[in-house]
Amino acid sequence: MNNNFNKFPENFLWGGALAANQCEGGYKEGGKGLTTVDLCPAGENRRKVMEGKIDILKPVDGEYYPSHESIDFYHRFREDIALFAEMGFKCLRISIAWSRIFPNGDEETPNEEGLKFYDEMFDEMIKHGIEPVVTICHFDTPIGIIEKFGGWKNRKFVDFYLNYCKAIFTRYKNKVKYWMTFNEINMILHLPFMGAGVRFDEGDNELQIKYQSAHHELIASALATKMAHEIIPGSMVGCMLAAGVTYAYSCNPEDVQKAMDKERENLFFIDVQSRGEYPGYAKRFLRENGIEIVFGEKDEEILKNNTVDFIGFSYYSSRCASVNPEVVNGKTAGNVFKTVRNPYLKVSEWGWQIDPLGLRITANQLYDRYQKPLFIVENGLGAVDTPEEDGTINDDYRIEYLSEHVKAMKEAIADGVDLIGYTPWGCIDLVSASTGEMKKRYGFIYVDKDNEGNGTLNRSKKKSFYWYKKVIETNGEEV
Predict the structure, then answer these.
(1) What is the C-alpha to C-alpha distance for residues 332 and 350, in angstroms, rounded to an integer?
(2) CATH of the domain at 140
(3) Which terminus of the chain is less hemmed in, N or C, by CB atoms within 10 Å?
(4) Is 101 in contact with 164 (CB distance < 8 Å)?
(5) What digits encode the pLDDT tens for the residues 273-308?
(6) What is the mean predicted confidence (pLDDT) over 151-173?
(7) What is the pLDDT of residues 77-86, one digit of tens each?
């Protein structure tokens, strides 16, 4: 028990977060197959592709695909990990690209070259005393099995995923303790192609397909949790939610109900992964919307007996809900989640509402609900960074944002929340998942590359690099 109520635990996992599909590049190297993000272009068609509204299964001439090179972490990971070590990282959240291990997704044996790449990456992290925290599937389902079997709406994907899990659990069992099964699993409702390789034909019941696909992912997550515990004794397996408390815009009970409904739309996934069953409100929603989930014979038992060990979540901003049409028309961009504009909050350059107190509220909400350790695996401010003439980057706005959120974390710990780690998103600049941009930067480390793919890819330290180093050195006492 942490008896220093307003201090971070001594073993707190300070670090940073990346994803293979947004940093690696090398999209055809090492035997890698195509994956969903490799088909998400920059520009106006990006969102339509991510939503499954444009049906493409190979790159299109004339489009720019930022993931193909990204920041070239594939070749530069040693240099970058050394910089993370210089900041004092205790852990690094990274994902494995499924299609590096199984290029098409349905091979019987894994690609040795892909396995070796992650061996080298994990070895480099461990050499520097950095604990790997690995997301198994982070928006990069192999195109080969999508083309053959139609994405996660097909139950066969459970077996493909488990074959992949077996390969990586077996290979890295002595190197990786912390795992997360799916990144932002609730994103399947919002970006179904990017999140689950799901595409739609005219006349499809999209809601039915989304929830059936989600069920398959939930079964896969439970069975992967079981497998990890068997292959890697002492492993910690978590879920991962795109989180953020939803406030009622007013004290009108209808606004309160609307906010609760919006919260439940996302918490449904974690309710199942953490509690092991479909909650009553979800059963009602499915029933009233004519959605019939096809359960396998043992699915209820699988979910009940294989709940996660911790709750991983991203937090960038809070949300707000109302039933008033005039209020609803004032929505802000707010990432993938369109949300009513909260008049009490400032917004970022991309319209994301800045709410540090919302992080404390969200952490308390999740811990009260699940009573499982929490891990904040994404948080940060996307902003345009402009180097000075001497090359320095004075990102005081990022320091202010992160500082206030670290203070909110400390308050949550004082509230009694069991918080085990914090990995700010994009600890080195990378490609934005939502927009495909490079100018929307999150990192402590600047990467010389622009939205069109031009630049040297040289790395340089921002002012926030030194700030975060001090935060880690003092275990959150100096923020």
Answers:
(1) 9
(2) 3.20.20.80
(3) N
(4) yes
(5) 999 999 999 999 999 999 999 999 999 999 999 999
(6) 98
(7) 999 999 999 9
Residues 309, 372: contact at Cβ < 8 Å? yes
254: in domain? no
Give the catalytic positions in this structure: 378
Q: Look up residue 468 and give its two tokens.
A: 């975060």
Q: What is the token pair recorded at 274?
A: 């953490």
Average pLDDT over residues 339-346: 92
Lowest mean pLDDT segment, chosen from 64-73, 200-209, 370-379, 424-433: 200-209
Tokens of 222: 């439970």
The residue range of the domain holding 36 is 13-241+354-472
Q: Are 340 and 272 in contact (CB under 8 A)?
A: no
Q: Which residue shows structure tokens 């029933």?
A: 287
Is residue 477 a part of any domain in this protein? no
Helix (H), strand (E), coil (C) string for the chain: CCCCCCCCCCCCEEEEECCHHHHCCCCCHHHCCCEHHHHCCCCCCHHHHHCCCCCCCCCCCCCCCHHHCCCCHHHHHHHHHHHHHHHCCCEEEEECCHHHHCCCCCCCCCCHHHHHHHHHHHHHHHHCCCEEEEEEECCCCEHHHHHHHCHHHCCHHHHHHHHHHHHHHHHHCCCCCEEEEECCHHHHHCCHHHHHCCCCCCCCCHHHHHHHHHHHHHHHHHHHHHHHHHHCCCCEEEEEEEECCEEECCCCHHHHHHHHHHHHHHHHHHHHHHHCCCCHHHHHHHHHCCCCCCCCCCHHHHHHHCCCCEEEEEECCCEEECCCHHHHCCEECCCCCCEECCCCCEECCCCCEECHHHHHHHHHHHHHHHCCCEEEEECCCCECCCCCCCCCCCCHHHHHHHHHHHHHHHHHHHCCCCEEEECCECCECCCCCCCCCCCCECCCEEECCCCCCCCCCCEEECHHHHHHHHHHHCCCCCC
Q: How many domains does the chain have?
A: 1
Q: Please state whether beta strands 374-378 and 419-422 pair in parallel, antiparallel, or not at all (unpaired).
A: parallel
What was the pLDDT predicted at 6?
80
Residue 47 is assigned to a structural domain of this protein: yes
Nearest to 316 by CA among 349, 268, 346, 358: 358
Distance CA 112, CA 27 (A): 16
Around Cβ 357, how many Cβ atoms within 10 Å? 15
pTM (whole model) above 0.90: yes
Taking only Cα atoms into account, the Rg of the chain, rounded to an integer number of angstroms, comes to 21
Residue 166 has a pLDDT of 98
